[in-house]
């Protein structure tokens, strides 16, 4: 399995359950790993057959910047749904770091893995 990754993607968004978090944007940092067969892109040297990580990053930045969720659980699952349904990705691993959410902790967040389930024939 080939993996295309996008690491340390910092995005400002409204996220959180407390009153001040509903009006003050905070930074979330995403690390994303996406399973994608790179062979056709390698054979052809043509971006048309590649998973264009620029396109992926623009879609995710746009979505997260305009979102206003309460929980990081909701945000990370919505991101995984976009990746699995809009791009030819069969598996994704996402780490969402809500830096600074906990005093004394440098990192806090969630890691999920999601896959497209194929029917057994
Ligand atoms: N499991 C979660 N716990 C907490 C969340 C969350 O999104 N998922 N959020 C908060 C607050 O918004 C926090 O980030 C502020 O410090 C608390 N716990």
From TrEMBL:
SUPFAM superfamilies: Tetrahydrobiopterin biosynthesis enzymes-like. Residues 4-114 form the Dihydroneopterin aldolase/epimerase domain. It catalyses: 7,8-dihydroneopterin = 7,8-dihydromonapterin; 7,8-dihydroneopterin = 6-hydroxymethyl-7,8-dihydropterin + glycolaldehyde. The keyword Lyase applies. Its EC number is 4.1.2.25. Pathway: Cofactor biosynthesis; tetrahydrofolate biosynthesis; 2-amino-4-hydroxy-6-hydroxymethyl-7,8-dihydropteridine diphosphate from 7,8-dihydroneopterin triphosphate: step 3/4. Keywords: Folate biosynthesis, Isomerase, Lyase. GO terms for cellular component: cytoplasm. Belongs to the DHNA family. This is 7,8-dihydroneopterin aldolase. It comes from Crenothrix polyspora.
């Amino acid at each position: 399995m080939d993996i295309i990754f996008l690491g340390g993607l910092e995005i400002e968004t409204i996220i959180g359950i407390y009153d001040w978090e509903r009006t003050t944007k905070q930074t979330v940092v995403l690390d994303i790993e996406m399973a994608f067969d790179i062979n056709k892109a390698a054979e052809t040297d043509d971006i048309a057959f590649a998973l264009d990580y620029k396109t992926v990053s623009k879609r995710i930045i746009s979505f997260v910047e305009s979102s206003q969720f309460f929980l990081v659980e909701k945000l990370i699952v919505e991101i995984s749904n976009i990746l699995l349904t809009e791009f030819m990705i069969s598996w994704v691993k996402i780490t969402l770091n809500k830096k600074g959410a906990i005093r004394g902790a440098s990192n806090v967040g969630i890691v999920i893995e999601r896959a497209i389930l194929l029917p057994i024939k």
